[in-house]
Amino acid sequence: MTLAEKEFKKQLESKVGLVNKVIKRILLEPGWIERELKKPVRYALVGPGKRIRPTIVLWCCELAAGSTNNNALIAAAAIEMVHTYSLIHDDLPAMDDDDYRRGRLTCHKKFDEATAILTGDALLTLAFELLAKQISESTIAVRLIAELSEGAGPAGMVAGQMADLQAANKKVNEKSLNRIHTNKTARMFRCAAAMGAISGGADDKQLNRLREYGLKVGLGFQIADDILDVSASSEQLGKTSGKDAQQGKATYPAVMGLEKSKKLAEKLADEAVAALKPFGAKADTLRYLATMLLQRRK
Amino acid sequence: MTLAEKEFKKQLESKVGLVNKVIKRILLEPGWIERELKKPVRYALVGPGKRIRPTIVLWCCELAAGSTNNNALIAAAAIEMVHTYSLIHDDLPAMDDDDYRRGRLTCHKKFDEATAILTGDALLTLAFELLAKQISESTIAVRLIAELSEGAGPAGMVAGQMADLQAANKKVNEKSLNRIHTNKTARMFRCAAAMGAISGGADDKQLNRLREYGLKVGLGFQIADDILDVSASSEQLGKTSGKDAQQGKATYPAVMGLEKSKKLAEKLADEAVAALKPFGAKADTLRYLATMLLQRRK
User: Fold this and answer.
1) Residues A210-239: pLDDT tens digits?
2) What superfamily would CATH give domain B3-295?
3) Pairing with B123, which of A183, A243, A269, B46 sits 20 to 30 Å away (CA)?
4) Which residues 177-196 on chain A approach chain B with CB closer than 8 angstroms?
């Protein structure tokens, strides 16, 4: 491991630690979650997640403000809740029908389908409750809620999931493929970057740069994910591998081939790095993240 | 029909008309909903719903401000979206497994289960997006989002739905029954009243009175609903009747008998009316609503 790699890993672990700490605080604080839902919500949230989206929130806040602040921590917890809800619903039998996620049983396998549906609903709602109640300034809270709902809602992630399901076993061109995966995955990465920037008081120019970074990294991440699904084992992934092909999903390797997919992911990482230019050396961690996400093994 | 009844019906129809108009505007405006979701979201929202929750929002705003305003209209659309999402998920095969709702096929019957899950998710997220983007003052927007997420989330409606499922075919005492139905239904009625009061700039005293009214009316409404399920036909209800008993649900008639249930509903309506005392004659429509909801046939 190089020195830069070591430093990056240290930074990443410290941020994941911060995210997990906020999430645990919310889970322990009385008033947020009634007793019926405590167990499944905790099971879903306190798993071995990679916490990439909330880490982007924190790093983008640092870039704008010089350090992480409470707004960014709350925004990080909120986006992780929304991401977790989307996984729970995505894994349901009527959707992707997956038994494993993050190396453990999926929510509907551990509990039952009704519990999984309601736990997802609970996490999505709780994310907005957190932002409305735990962000100090109303103007910031409203902007964060607008970003998160726009990224996750019917013009963003949910639309992407719907399009993804509809495209299964159909002939899909590259333009449609990009649209599906931009909505399904990249929009939430852009949302993470924007939420961090807003939390850190970024100006419009910085905000737009970070949005651009998030979108490119997000799409690159999705391509890497598609590639992993055909090349890695279930053990490595913590979820069933080879599922995309089995379900006839419109993935990058399926539509444009493995080599061209890898090239596109590299191009997106380069563009993400380029968007960070005005930030100078301060953005090195985000640059490293962009290339790291393409080389991941899980 | 008495004169008071006629006047009430006229008022109600005019409010339902306003709610439907905002909802239609949102459905037509570009940007909110990507094309994949347009059809199911429209199917779910533009049904023959009773629109009771959004009507309460508008009436409570009128009571506080003298007239309906834009904030209340947006709040009304938002709470109707959350209510509609909860029905779609509630009707899923893994939940209450219902084929009919509001006199038409349920969303998963009209489309499929995956579409129904995602349409519910879309509506829930869109409700918060609306509040974040269409309310003029940030402080009001944040308060409305806090109310709605608290009422609908893991300490409110979702917890109630979870408890309701867990209580099926079990011995439930009156205390647990009240807790389940307060969370499942009454909290959202309280939320509707609070959102209207906040939209209309009510002071804390008025807000608390209206909250109290909403909670009592909501619980009374749920009891009436339980009674209808055993006494009305599927045709009258627009959904399958007798389902509660069939599924061993913890309902008021099942736990405390039909007569005692009717008495309790009347008591709640009286208490709801009593909470409105300081508002004088201006609150007559809300008073009428409290008693009307107990006499409904669907």
Assistant:
1) 999 999 999 999 999 899 888 877 777 777
2) Farnesyl Diphosphate Synthase (1.10.600.10)
3) A243
4) 183
CATH architecture for the domain at A3-292:
Orthogonal Bundle (1.10)
In Å, how far is A30's CA from the nearest CA of chain B?
10
Q: Please judge whether B163 and A129 are an interchain contact, meaning their C-beta atoms are less than 8 angstroms apart.
A: no
Q: How many CB atoms lie within 10 A of CB B13?
A: 11
Q: Is B186 exposed, middle or buried (0-12, 13-18, 19+ CB in 10 A)?
A: buried
B-facing residues of A in 42-61 (CB < 8 A) are: none
What separation, in Å, do the N-terminal and C-terminal C-alpha atoms of chain B show? 18
Cα separation, A35 vs B30, in Å, equals 41
Distance CA A18, CA A23 (A): 9
ipTM of the modeled complex = 0.96
Task: Kindly list the residues from chain B whose CB atom is less than 8 angstroms away from the CB atom of residue A97.
Answer: none
Q: Are A162 and B36 inside 8 Å of each other by CB?
A: yes
Return the domain boundaries, chain B.
Answer: 3-295
Measured distance CA(B17)–CA(B221) in Å, rounded: 22
Of B63, B78, B74, B170, nearest in space to B124 by CA = B78
pLDDT in tens, A232-272: 777 777 777 788 888 889 999 999 999 999 999 999 999 99
